[in-house]
């Protein structure tokens, strides 16, 4: 446990940010899985699911949760599956 006041605050702030990032990553993975299942099943809402997943990935990059190259990789993989399904 830290002894310095600022270090104690950093521990608290880090814990809060960790929980927020964890929740956002979980929602991101869920939207990606929904898009993948919509594309593979040939659902009518596959374009909406794909678009929602791409927006979620882009927001994760802007918030610093994902690296931009990781996001590009994920979007490319989704786009490839989406285009093959059409």
TrEMBL record:
InterPro entries: Ribosomal_bS20 (IPR002583), Ribosomal_bS20_sf (IPR036510). One of its GO terms (cellular component) is cytosol. The keyword Cytoplasm does not apply. Binds directly to 16S ribosomal RNA. This is Small ribosomal subunit protein bS20. One of its GO terms (molecular function) is structural constituent of ribosome. Belongs to the bacterial ribosomal protein bS20 family. Keywords: Ribonucleoprotein, Ribosomal protein, RNA-binding, rRNA-binding. The keyword rRNA processing does not apply. It holds the Pfam family Ribosomal_S20p. GO terms for biological process: translation.
């Amino acid at each position: 446990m830290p002894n310095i006041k600022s270090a104690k605050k950093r521990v608290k702030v880090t814990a809060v940010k960790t929980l927020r990032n964890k929740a956002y990553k979980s929602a991101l993975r869920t939207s990606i899985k929904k898009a993948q299942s919509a594309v593979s099943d040939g659902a009518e809402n596959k374009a909406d699911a794909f678009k929602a997943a791409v927006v979620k990935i882009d927001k994760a990059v802007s918030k610093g949760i994902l690296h931009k190259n990781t996001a590009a990789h994920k979007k490319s993989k989704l786009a490839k599956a989406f285009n093959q399904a059409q």
